[in-house]
Amino acid sequence: MMNRRDSVGVKVGEIQIGGNAPVIVQSMTNTDTADVEGTVRQVMDLAKAGSELVRITVNNEESAQAIPRIREELDKKGCSAPLIGDFHFNGHKLLDKYPDCAEALAKYRINPGNVGRGSKRDPQFAQMIEFACRYEKPVRIGVNWGSLDQSVLARLLDENARLSEPKPLSDVMREAVITSALESAERAVLLGLPKNRIVLSCKMSGVQELIAVYRALAERCDYALHLGLTEAGMGSKGIVASTAALAVLLQQGIGDTIRISLTPEPGADRTHEVIVAQEILQTMGIRSFTPMVISCPGCGRTTSDYFQKLAQQIQSHLRHKMPEWRKKYSGVEDMHVAVMGCVVNGPGESKNANIGISLPGTGEQPVAPVFEDGVKTVTLKGDHIAEEFQELVERYVISHYGSNPGNLAAAE
Fold first, then answer.
1. Which of 192, 193, 232, 339 has the fewest CB within 10 Å, making it most exposed?
2. Is the dihedral of CA 317, 321, 323, 328 positive or negative?
3. Per the annotation, where are the binding residues?
4. Which domain-ending residue is among 232, 259, 284?
5. Quick one: 163 and 279 in the same domain?
6. Residues above pLDDT 90, as percent of the chain
7. Which residue range or ranges hold the IspG C-terminal domain (predicted)?
């Protein structure tokens, strides 16, 4: 088991970040926040998919006015996911004018690079922190290299230019990101915000830059850290880049909460970023969220796509059932289900899973043995193997994870 970095715990609603709490999954809506119905629907979808914290844009008066109504509607529908307000440029004005918004949000996100320009930066940052103190809200001080505080960068560039051997520009940029976060956090503490209400993030869009920045940041403070590769991209590129960066840091015990910032395909489900975040944590053995499906890639022995369809069907079914199962069956998220396509590795993988099926490959006998906890329990045949195996998975969950064994008889 990897050792987690020690960090100061921060409560966001009923969710704890850091302080030896599990790594928390976050996401963000992309609806117009003023659209109360649409935003409520997306927050609920994200929460149902497993997002434990949901960030929403608060960029104008209409969105600030909508926040209390969004919170109220979510509460009515039984969705308790804490809402994080994402503020840029005018957050100090919105929190001042709309106290109900300030109260309804569980956390504020402040970017030191655009909280205010020039002489307005410090007083406007102070206003944001004062509101956090007044309403007893935690704050994420989120530095982004694309909107870096130019005064910090200019100061470090001047200092670097005076060195006998100046450092490369990339090194100065990384140091500016870290310095902006740490100096902002120090100022927040001086303004009265306790350390246990501060989370830091330093987001970069390059994998190696992100790893280098967070390693240095982790060594220089004990604040809770939010991880995320900003502007990760679309599709496989975004998933691979985010996984490459976050896996390295998580393996070193760095990171208390994560978000996967994928560019969604047009019309695609926003919840995909939540699933990717969960799968990173689960495949690394850090947290379990839903039963894992083990399946082979297929080869010339598996010319039929039957096993692929079954694997996809089972995976979708498990995810669909998890909101219900999570409440009723303790530990079911750790279950492993194998769906294999031929006799080469099929029986072995099936025996090693909690429950597994080895489907017939090309030219093999048209039977499918099913193994439960390493023992063959039944052999399926005919045209309804998929339905029968899904039913066996359901029975396994009830019999092995149900608090009352009598549930098995009831399910029948």
1. 192
2. negative
3. 296, 299, 342, 349
4. 284
5. yes
6. 93
7. 293-394
